[in-house]
Every structure is written in C-alpha cells, then in structure tokens.
Amino acid sequence: MSRLIVISNRVAAPKPQGEGGAQGGLAVALSAALREYRGVWFGWSGNKTDQFTGHIDFERYEGVTSATIDLEEQDVDEYYNGYANRTLWPLFHYRIDLAEYDRSFAGGYERVNERFAETVKPLIEPDDLVWVHDYHLIPLGAQLRERGLQNRMGFFLHIPWPPSRLMVSLPFHEGLVLSMLAYDVIGFHTEEWLDSFRNYVQRELGGHCDADGTIHVGDRSVYAAAYPIGIDYKEFVAAANSAAARTAFDRLKKSADGRRTIIGVDRLDYSKGLEERFLGYRRFLEEHEDCRGQLFMLQIAPPSRGEVHTYEIIREHLDELSGRINGEFAEVDWVPIRYVNQGYGREDLAGFYRASTMALITPLRDGMNLVAKEYVAAQDPDDPGVLILSRFAGAALQLKDALLVNPYSKEELSDAIHTALNMPLEERIRRWRSMNECVKQEDVVWWRHSFVSDLEKVDIAHRGTRRHDVPSLAPQPIRP
Ligand code: ADQ
Question: Whose CA is nearest to atom 14 of ligand 1?
C-alpha cells in the first residue's frame, strides 16, 4: 500500500494525552484518516523563527509521523494572516466587503508555498500519494510539479468555492485557478461548490467539463468531484457515552434547573452567523414572552485568528450584543444567553450536545460544518434533540431532516426555535434517525476512502510527465 503524505497549513497529528488542545474540524478529520495509514503529515508548526532554514521537526505517535517547519514573522503576516485569512477566507465565504487585496499578501503566500514545496519534496517517495489541504496551499501542487514531482496528487478544499462573479474580484484569479490544474484530483464538500468551480473554469478559462467529472483546460485535465466530509462517528458516539460526557451532561442539566437548552458551538468567526443568531433568539424572546425563563441559549465560541482585525471587531460586537440582550431580558434568577469563550474537550462537548433540547447552527456560509454532525451523533436515540441548521452550510445538503433556516432571517430563526420546542417525540425520533443514518454511513472513513481511492485510480502513464508553469499571483508592476 502507498503511504499517504498529507500537507496542510497546520499539523495536528494525534498527541499523547494531555498535550492536545481543542482541535478544529480539519484537524479532527485528518487525525482519524491518518491513523490507518503509515502516513506523514507535513505543515507549519505554528511557531515563528527569525530566519527560515527549512529545518523539519519530526514526531511520531500512533503510527503517524508529523513533520513541521517554523515560519518567519513576515511569512505569517503575509501568508497566513494576510492572503489566507484576509483575502481568500472572506472572499470564499462570499464576503467581498471584508476581503483585502494587497500585493504583499499575495507575494508572501507564493513565497510560503514555495518554501513548503522545497522542504517537503525530499520527504516524498515515488509511490506516495500526496494529499494537499485547503485554501492556504492552493498553488503548492504546481510548485511541486515545477520541482519535478510526478506523484499522484490531490487537493481538497474545506471551504466553499464562491460564485464566478465574486471570484473574479480577486486580482490574478486566473493564476490561482490555473495553478490548481497541477493536481490530479480536486475535491469539494458539495455539488454546489463543485458547480461554481466548473462554472468558473468554463467562463473564465475557456475550459470544458466532461460528464464523468474530468475538467479540461488547454492540454491539462483534472478530475473534480464532491466528497462531503464526515465526523469520526464511532469515536464521537464513544465520547458521548463516556463517563466524562455523563459528567458534563449532569453539570449542564443541573445548572439548567429544568430549563431547556439551545446550544451553539462555533469558532468565533463572522462566517458562523453568531450576531444574526443572537438577533433571531432575541426575536423569539420578544415574540414568546411566555417562554422566557423556560429556556436559555448556551453559545460556546472560542476566539480564533486573533491577529486579524475583523475578528477583534466581531468579538467586540458579540460581547456587546450578548450583554445587551441579557440586560434587556434577564431576571434575578434567569439569564437568556450564556456566552462562553473557551474550548472544551470532545467528551464535554458531546455531553453538552446530548443535554440540549436543540442545536442552533446557523452559519451564513460554511463549507460543511462538523458541529451539526457531532450534535446528531451525540443524541439519545430515545429522546433526541432537534437540529436547526442553516441552509447555507454544506451539511444542509445531507441533513435534510434538520429544520433548515435562512440564517439572515430573524423571523425564520424565531419560528424554528418555537417549532423545535414543541416538536412531538415521534417526529424528533423520525428526523433524528434519518440524519443519524447519514452521519453514521458517510463518516470520515468513508470520506477518506472516497477521495483516496479516486486518487489511486489516476493513470499517471496517461497523464505524462509534464512540468507545470506556476502563474504568478503578484506580478511586479511594469516599470518604464
Ligand atoms: P471549521 O470552520 O473549524 O472547519 P467545523 O466544521 O464546524 O468548522 O468544525 C469545528 C470543529 O471544532 C468541530 O469538530 C468542533 O467540535 C470543534 N470545536 C468548535 N468549537 C469548539 C470548542 N469550543 N471546544 C472544542 N471544540 C470545538 C472548516 C470549515 C468547515 C468544515 C471543516 C472540515 O470551515 O466548513 O466542515 O473545516 O472540513
């Protein structure tokens, strides 16, 4: 069997007990996938260095080798805080109003992708499968091909692909997308993101798409498909049944004192729709005076990307808004919103999910959203809670038995909370069973199998041994 080389911005391979923190969606999913492979996971350590040397730190645990490099401060500013999180993240989440275009960001992004390529290439053996992840590393495949790598190489995008008329607002967008054609397989979470990608290739690059999923641009071909990511279902159900989850369950139930809980768990990010969610809940409290005091919202939202200004602003807004709603509606013995800014372990989260009457998961745009799936997996089959889910999350295309809402509409959110509170047990069970079946079948193992087996099928001989030009994202201005 080939080895799997996973390359992502950050590496979060499994660690001995006590060394791990709360992990993001990508980290959780990939740890599970790599456990079964003799894999290497390469990426940035999260640390800074005065001078980039290409030194790699290796660690081995549970059959996974992690290989990490440190980056210079300027790299982190321009590549990570800059092009990845101030340019691509907002644009790909349809927020061109927040996207910042700066040539130095694009230059830093190219430089770090080159540094990744230089450093990881010697670790790759001829039969290895290479699997690159996410928007931080879009041009890495082309950088590796330029250095002569002929391996099967796949790319998976964990966030949405924006509609073409938004994508064209990115300076040198053609260069970015052309560089993606160096991969053999490109994966998206949903057909919707895939359709937008195909549309872009046809409209902007004059390419054409075969019915079998192959996309052609000039003499280049790449297979593109939708592979909806799942959770590690077995691990999560075990977490939900653990003693620690039971303790967390009891803790929340005890403090709820007979009141019902609406739970939300998200990284603190403007794409997650937290302000709109608070406003929808506020609307519910206004419209249903009789329900006040009978329920509360528990919103868990650990801060992320603190070095990016828009994240400071959203944090301030949420502090202010939750305080305002609490001030407006609280009684001496009841507070409507418990707003918590810390991360929790998987067992604690699973216990909190199970103790909650409903989950309110309402991103304005989300590639998939794993919290929705975790909420389903954690439920008591005999008395499951209700999932209220944004129709703009990738997960909505699979979890059709959730109460699907428009996250921008306060009225829809309010109505959905009311419906969930009053939903009869039989309907809750019927909806939960159908969602749980999907979360169980299409788990992270299924996701990885689907992607990796398509990568293994790539016919290298047919592809030939072409090198790949790397189009620039930040060409120097022409000087007279
Ligand atoms: P994220 O934007 O990070 O992921 P999501 O898919 O919801 O979003 O994953 C979040 C993960 O972090 C979940 O596993 C959750 O349990 C965990 N988490 C969140 N808050 C936590 C807390 N307070 N304590 C502990 N754990 C917490 C990106 C994309 C998503 C896509 C994933 C995977 O934005 O759309 O689903 O990658 O591809």
Answer: 25
Determine, yes or no, domain membership for 398. Answer: yes
**Rounded distance from Cα 368 to ligand 1 centre (Å):** 9
Spatial separation of the C-alpha atoms in residues 291 and 340, rounded to whole Å: 23
- CA-CA distances (angstroms) from residue 94 to 269, 366, 392? 14, 10, 11
Q: In this structure, is residue 192 part of a structural domain? A: yes
Q: Is 464 exposed, middle or buried (0-12, 13-18, 19+ CB in 10 A)?
A: exposed
Percent of the chain whose pLDDT exceeds 90: 83
Q: Could you tell me the residue range of the domain that residue 298 belongs to? A: 234-441
Pocket mutation for ligand 1, best pick of 370, 398, 447 (most atoms within 8 Å of C-beta): 370
Does the annotation count 462 as an active-site position? Answer: no
pLDDT in tens, 152-194: 999 999 999 999 999 999 999 999 999 999 999 999 999 999 9
**Same domain membership, residue 199 and residue 186:** yes
CATH code, domain carrying 239: 3.40.50.2000
Beta bridge partners of residue 42, listed in sequence order: 7, 67
**Same domain? 35 vs 137:** yes
For ligand 1, the distance from its centroid to the CA atom of residue 201, given in whole angstroms, is 29
Residue tagged active-site, from 366, 401, 443, 454: 366
Which residue has the least CA distance to atom 21 on ligand 1?
343
Query: Helices (H), strands (E): how many in the chain?
Result: 18, 16
pLDDT in tens, 432-453: 999 999 999 999 989 989 999 9
Residues 448 and 426 in one domain: no
| Residues in the ligand 1 pocket, defined by CB under 6 Å | 22, 24-26, 28-29, 158-159, 229, 265, 267, 300, 302, 343-344, 349, 366-371, 374
Task: Examine the residue annotation and report whether 173 is marked as an active-site residue of this protein.
Answer: no
Per-residue pLDDT reduced to its tens digit, 303-351: 888 888 889 999 999 999 999 999 999 999 999 999 999 999 999 999 9
* Closest residue by CA, ligand 1 atom 1: 25
Verify that 285 and 397 share a domain, yes or no.
yes
Q: Are residues 96 and 226 in the same domain?
A: yes
Same domain flag for 454 and 420: no
Q: Ligand 1: distance of its center to the CA of 446 in Å? A: 19
The amino acid sitting at 212 is D
What whole-number distance in Å separates Cα of residue 79 and Cα of residue 137? 10
